[in-house]
Target: MFS transporter
Amino acid sequence: MDRLLLDPRAWGLMFAAMLTIMSNATITPSLPGLEARFADDPLAPMLTRLLITAPSLLVAIVAPFAGGLTDRLGRRKPLLVGLIIYAVAGTAGLYLNSIEAILASRLFLGLGVAAIMTSQAALVGDYFEGPARGRLLGYQMAATNLGGLIFVTTAGVLASWDARLPFAIYGLAALLLPFLAAVLPEPVRDADGGAAHAGQDDAEPGWQATVAIMSIAAGLTFVIFYAVPTQVPYHLQAEGMTDPRAAGLVMGAMMLAAALMSVISGWIRPWLGRIGTPVTGYLSLAIGFLLLSLGHSLPVAMLSTAFIGTGLGLCMPTFITTALNVTPARHRGLVSGLVTAAIFLGQFLSPLASQPLVSHLGYSGAFSVGAMGYVALALLLAVTLRRRPQPGNKSLLVPTPPAQHK
Model:
């Protein structure tokens, strides 16, 4: 057993990260039912899809500022305040009586997500370093997707009873609040504002450009990826699979695959390399989207999203690991906020990009475009990273062995 998993701080950070997947995907099985409930609103088809990504808009706007605040004010208070906002805003869909009011509550939820995500990402950099940091980010992604598997499949069952019931799952944040408050202490700060033990972590030359590359890649990845939670439930309905539990199973297959790959990714990145890791992930994503465009059954849809989850499990840890590894300790909060903002901006823009494609090309055509987009991203990122200078004391994608740290 990895000794890292004996550290309660690691579990606290994994649970905090797990909440972020709930901010969007948990209500995916509810979308058709919510659209039917508010069918008298002519904007319901677009607004119900925006319920998935509305938190992402606020996160994209707020996360860089939230990250900067965690560098100035500490990590713990923003995290705990974010949990409270998350619980209150997340459960509001249980009782609000218009689609516009629910959309507003989803925007407010984004404030809580921004505080939680930037604080916990910065704490990963403060508490852990070297290989442990890379492995924890893999475990964190696994916990996020296992949580998503449980939450989305549960939401599918709840949505088959009432489209509003999945909003109750957001109340888990209130239950986790005492545990996280107990196991996540404020890191000791040094005179420069960094974690005391991390003062030895020098920034890589040109770290700003590397952070920009990873942020852009993350944002574009999620523009395409979020066609899955926002469009697949309707795609399944068009194929005759109208039971909300089908959407839960398809999303669950994706999250299970992503969880497994996230655990493995920390161990296979040294073999795949700094370019091979994201390229392999993108090719798996492309295969998944291609299968979605060709398949017409529940097993094929589940296989498709399993490929998508596998690809995301390889790519996702790469973005934040790269950014944290090259960044000076005093700027980790800001950088985690920037990468977070890029990811969530991509999520918000996704339905605005995919819905016109669905309207003109149908679901199969839109998923085919997504597959081509991931192939293009694989090529562009490979060329961009090849032109970047090799890191000196720290790898861009693979944390250096302890013996190399001075």
